[in-house]
Design brief:
binds zinc ion; 7-stranded mixed sheet; TIM Barrel; 9-stranded parallel sheet; alpha/beta; Urease, subunit C, domain 1; zinc; 434 residues
Length: 434
């Protein structure tokens, strides 16, 4: 039996990167729109009066007044084990790992703890309208089992992996090239391609993996189709110097990964705050992606991501919250901070570009644009209902707003989890605020 529901509201999705298409051609908007969802997939999208003519009689219609339906947000870099240490005071990257991250991650040896945090983490993503994320586990395989089990129950499209880390970390948090390879392989066999789940080979970053371990990461990518590679790159200046000292034979940070065949169309590098043109060229040439993590880059004092440089080189870019170094699960708040990162560099970030980055741009960075990231008929029905009147201030400010782009900008600047009315995955409600 087919299961059909129609949703009526203002509806917006992205058609492409404004840097390529121009602002006007980069989006699709229906002021009085209707989207039809059939068996978990979008089957029709358009102006409500037209779509309604084609609806089978008796089709249930959900009408959201003064709300905006968009694709679910896509977070291209986040650490679920760091949920409990978000907002930790005082350090930049390397001390922050030592003082906060490693102690927090040690607790994930306990499967019950991993299960509990997975649930809290996914509740937060749903509350914030994020339906797909590329997620770090810890070194413990049980951390990834717990995460995937929780994601599977909710039928979410999620990507995650076990951290590979065989040096420069506490003994309780390290694996070896052999055990890291073996444990990753077992997780891939168990989860990769199961339902809507994908596996990411996940070396933490170059300083915590030996060349032998990075070689096993490259080997895994060759052995299985469709695997992701997820790591950090050029976040902090001291980190970059450390990588140079650890890998003197390589020509810079990115080259360490390149040397081990870790670049490619499913490779996502978090941060990339301090990249030279040669590195940008190489990322583009290999179709690798960058996760731009503004709240994290500001919070850890790492630096300002140069989005125009990435655009010039045509590098795929998505947005990441990077919780727990990031300070919010909200992609709206992440956009708000991305705007300020551009301002500090004398650049503007248009709301249509931000919207692209948080939806279709993220989907492209993850090679998932056929499945999610837009509301194109045929796509999986992962979407969010946003409330223009989430707070008294938003409501008052919206009364002064004259255009879609102005309303969108206010939503992105003042909005957060409170602006998410409902979140849907494969057409099912996974969060309902009211
Ligand atoms: Zn990170």
């Amino acid at each position: 039996m087919t299961h059909t529901i129609a949703y009526r509201a203002a509806i917006l999705d992205s058609l492409g990167d404004p840097a390529e298409l121009g602002l006007e051609n980069s989006y699709r908007y229906f002021e009085d729109g209707m989207m039809v969802v059939e068996n978990g997939r979008i089957s029709a999208l358009g102006h409500a009066p037209e779509i309604m003519k084609g609806l089978k009689s008796g089709t249930k219609i959900h009408h959201y007044e003064d709300a905006l339906i968009t694709p679910g947000f896509i977070d291209t870099h986040i650490h679920y084990p760091q949920t409990g240490m978000i907002a930790s005071y005082g350090d930049q990257l390397l001390d922050w790992l030592e003082n906060y991250t490693f102690p927090a991650e040690q607790k994930f040896a306990d499967p019950a703890h991993a299960e509990q945090v997975s649930e809290i983490f996914l509740n937060e993503l749903m509350r914030n309208g994020t339906t797909t994320a590329l997620v770090f586990g810890t070194v413990h395989p049980q951390s990834v089992d717990a995460f995937f089990s929780s994601a599977e129950k909710r039928n979410l499209r999620m990507i995650a992996g076990k951290v590979l880390m065989d040096r420069n970390a506490p003994a309780t948090l390290t694996d070896t090239p052999e055990s890291g390879y073996r444990d990753s392989k077992a997780l891939i066999e168990r989860w990769h391609g199961k339902g809507r789940l994908h596996y990411a080979v996940t070396p933490r970053f170059a300083p915590t993996s030996s060349p032998e371990q990075l070689a096993t990461a490259g080997q895994l990518l060759r052995e299985y189709d469709g695997l992701y590679m997820h790591t950090h790159l050029s976040e902090n200046r001291n980190e970059i110097e450390w990588v140079k000292a650890l890998f003197p034979e390589q020509n810079g940070y990115l080259d360490v990964y390149d040397h081990h065949n870790l670049l490619g169309q499913r490779s996502v590098f978090a941060h990339g705050v301090h990249l030279c043109d040669e590195e940008c060229h190489r990322l583009a040439e290999t179709d690798s992606a960058i996760a731009f993590c503004p709240t994290s880059n500001l919070f850890l004092g790492s630096g300002l991501f140069n989005l125009p440089q990435a655009e010039q080189h045509k590098i795929k870019v998505g947005l990441g919250t990077d919780v727990g170094a990031g300070t919010s699960f909200s992609m709206l708040q992440t956009i708000n901070e991305a705007y300020k990162v551009m301002q500090l560099q004398g650049k503007k970030l248009h709301p249509f570009k931000s919207f692209y980055l948080a939806t279709l741009g993220g989907a492209r960075a993850l090679q998932l644009e056929q499945q999610v990231g837009t509301l194109e008929p045929g796509s999986e029905a992962d979407f969010v209902v946003l409330d223009y009147n989430a707070t008294p201030l938003m409501s008052y400010r919206m009364q002064q707003a004259k255009s879609l782009e102005e309303r969108l900008f206010v939503l992105m600047t003042l909005g957060d989890d409170r602006a998410v009315k409902a979140t849907f995955a494969m057409g099912e409600t996974v969060y309902n605020r009211d």
